[in-house]
Amino acid sequence: MPLPALPRLGLGCAPLANLYRAVTDEEAAATVAAAFDAGRPVTYLDTAPHYGLGRSEERLGRALAGRDRASYVLSTKVGRRLRDLAPGEEPDGQGFTDVPARARVWDFTADGIRATLEGSLERLGVDAVDIVYLHDVEDHLPEVYDSGFPALAELRDQGVVKAIGFGMNLSGVLARLVADLDVDVVLCAGRWTLLERTAYDDLLPVCERRGTAVVVGGVYNSGLLADPGPGAHYNYAAAPQPLVDRALAMARVCGDFGVPLRAAALRYPFAHPSVVSALVGAANADEVRDNEAMFGHDIPDAMWHALVGEGLLDADVPLPLTAGE
Fold first, then answer.
1. How many H-runs (helices) and E-runs (strands) does the chain carry?
2. Which three-class secondary structure state does DSSP give residue 263?
3. In 10 A of CB 115, how many CB atoms?
4. Cβ distance 187 to 215 under 8 Å?
5. Which residue out of 51, 200, 234, 268 is catalytically annotated?
6. What is this structure's pTM?
């Protein structure tokens, strides 16, 4: 099956599962509703069992109930299977608060991959998802090559899923996997942004050569490109001052052209032809509407050239120009 057409802006559903802070069921439902009601509907939705130990999938499933299944594209992930806690065992939220009484288990066996997907389908309340990613597998590559990816490929061959791939933060590992395996799509977080070109140097050339689609996540680099300044986060930790200074300089140049830095950060990854969609998380309806507005913001080509001229973007990277090079 071919990769389904993806809206260029997608909704990352980790925040629906109380990522770092609590979100109510009502806020989660309103977030998903706002995605469908946006001026450009945000109808690619990505989740995972890892997110809140199944809570993201459960909340997303309730929010999608009654909607035409053909009206949205849905992806989830495998590699971490969920199980109930043993007596006396405490859940490990791993950044998610108020989580269900479950635990994660790395499982790349064929039976484990199928069981993980079946659990996701039950929580989501759907018969099928469109895309399945093997999730954060960089420390488990022998198992991935031996059983995890073959099991996922078999599900694709059987028509159970339309497209398969990998999702992680490490573009170099993704590049190896794309080079070695028949991968439809990868989800690469944080490595192809206004601040980072790592994926441009290792992953994107392989994807272009192999015809593998790229979904980008982490376009704000954990927040630094959304709101640069003291206390900003980069790559899930406190941002180093040189990167804060660079982000502030970018914000100044963008501001000279009337463009918010968030809008530039959302648009920039599409400079590469292999990038088909950007996933952006949102914890409430206002954040969805802001993301959609930022994505649609008019950006003059002169702004990108100004960023290069001030040394804030490398001269050899592509630019998302509207008038062509």
1. 12, 12
2. helix
3. 16
4. yes
5. 51
6. 0.96
Residue 115: partners with Cβ closer than 8 Å, 6 or more residues away: 81, 107
Cβ contact 278:264 at 8 Å? no
Of residues 163, 159, 169, the one with CA closest to residue 212: 163
Return per-residue pLDDT of the chain as tens, 325 residues.
678 999 999 999 999 999 999 999 999 999 999 999 999 999 999 999 999 999 999 999 999 999 999 999 999 999 999 999 999 999 999 999 999 999 999 999 999 999 999 999 999 999 999 999 999 999 999 999 999 999 999 999 999 999 999 999 999 999 999 999 999 999 999 999 999 999 999 999 999 999 999 999 999 999 999 999 888 999 989 999 999 999 999 999 999 999 999 999 999 999 999 999 999 999 999 999 999 999 999 999 999 999 999 999 999 999 999 975 4
Instruction: Please report, in angstroms and rounded to a whole number, the separation of the first and last CA atoms in the chain.
Output: 34
Q: Which one, of 321, 208, 323, lies nearest residue 275 by Cα?
A: 208
Structure tokens at 23: 């979100």
51 is catalytic: yes
Determine the Cα–Cα distance for residues 27 and 24; give it in Å rounded to an integer: 5
Position 263, amino acid: A
- Report yes or no: 181 and 141 within 8 Å, Cβ to Cβ: no
Supply 263's token pair.
Answer: 């809008």
Q: Using the 8-state DSSP alphabet, how is residue 230 labeled?
A: T
Structure tokens at 10: 């997608």
CB 188 within 8 A of CB 307: no
